[in-house]
From TrEMBL:
Protein name according to UniProt: BON domain-containing protein
SMART domains xrefs: BON
Alphabetized Gene3D superfamilies for the sequence: 3.30.1340.30
Highest classification ranks of the organism: Bacteria, Pseudomonadati, Pseudomonadota, Betaproteobacteria, Burkholderiales
Ranges of residues in domain BON: 28-95
Annotated TM spans: none
Length: 95
């Protein structure tokens, strides 16, 4: 009986490792999103802008509206400067 339980546990180990990796990625992505949002909020020019931030597997996606191209570029630069960000995709529109 113990041998059967041990084999079952061994069979489940890879699935549990993958689940842990996915959970870790979700946590890391949410931390990245929070840091990017905080950095954007700290910038007086961007603070009141409607910039939406999403992160998936380290890729930050920015969307929303800003007053100028310079504001859009600043948001992208801020996002790129956050630890853990692998790339930034911007769909920010200038009003």
């Amino acid at each position: 009986m113990a041998d059967k339980t041990e084999r079952a546990a061994d069979a489940m180990a890879p699935k549990m490792d993958r689940a842990a990796e996915k959970t870790g990625a979700v946590v890391a992505d949410s931390v990245i999103t929070t840091k990017v949002k905080a950095d954007i909020f700290k910038e007086p020019e961007l603070k009141s802008m409607a910039i939406h931030v999403e992160t998936e597997k380290g890729v930050v996606m920015l969307s929303g509206f800003v007053d100028s191209k310079a504001d859009a570029e600043k948001a992208v630069r801020l996002a790129k400067s956050v630890d853990g960000v692998t790339s930034v995709k911007s769909a920010i529109k200038v009003k």
